[in-house]
Design a protein that fits this description.
4-stranded parallel beta sheet, alpha/beta, Rossmann fold, 8 strands
Length: 343
Amino acid sequence: MPHRVVSPRLMSLRLMSSRAPLILAATAFLAAGTAHAQTSNNAPSPDVVVSIKPIHSLVAAIMAGVGAPKLIVEGAASPHTYNMKPSNAAALQNAKIVFWMGEGMEHFLEKPLETLGSKATVVALEDAPGVEKLPQREGGPFEPHDDGDEADAGHDHDAAAEASHAHDDGEFDMHSWLDPRNAKAMAAEIETTLAKADPEHAAAYRTNRETLDARIDALDRAIAATVAPIKDRPFVVFHDAYQYFEHRYGVSVAGSITVSPETAPGAQRLKEIHAKIEKLGATCVFAEPQFEPKLVNVVLEGTSAKSGTLDPEAGTLTAGPDLYFQLMNGIAQSLASCLSQQG
């Protein structure tokens, strides 16, 4: 049979015909992606501003794939000592939604929210439905003070009064995100607020919140397992920020060097903490990265206690949706590392 010659043009047409289904499928896929991008572009997310890293992380997780919330207290700064920047003021002016814990935590935001953020929906997550609120503790050792030196006791009374003013009149401890159950309650309020302001992305917010809830449940179980071997071993912290972690996991916080970082503790309080450490025997005293460690060294002097670092406000962590998990795991791991060395 004679060999049949196929022209290059005919070969090209045949190849194009055989590949047509693949090309059409690829085109349809690209078209679908373009259509999705166009839909997203046509329905921008609202401008959202969040005060501090722990709750910014929850908001960022729920907004994933839709938008990115702006953060006010960035880097290693602390909300206890923060001063507003021009960029923060601009963000508040443009915000549609502002999430914060409340004036007891971010006292610096109270007046700017009344003026710059007056057009925004402002959500205080300390008041989110389902959030358990614990009373603010007053004494450094979490016990009634001894009579001691009247002058020193008076100084500590003044410091406690100042701390109470800075922490919403001393009524509630504001670090409620340190209980994962509270974080889930906050996440539900965040989703509700976002969906109401941006109904076009409500389904995405709901899916993201459900995913976040599942991750928080797994985190909760992992932390409980991590601290179980050391939860009965007492330790001292720099300031009283861990009550919710203590309440959830049963760890033994024996006291804090200061009630609030805004106020320096008096000599009597340092004396009480030092005595508490000696009474308890070998334990751990935890500093915080945002504050000078001098006071920690004072209470450690002459004792067998070891030192560590806890970061309840995530000053050393990079902001984003994973920060909350790094924060909580970091606290658990730091406690386990230091306290496991004790006899």
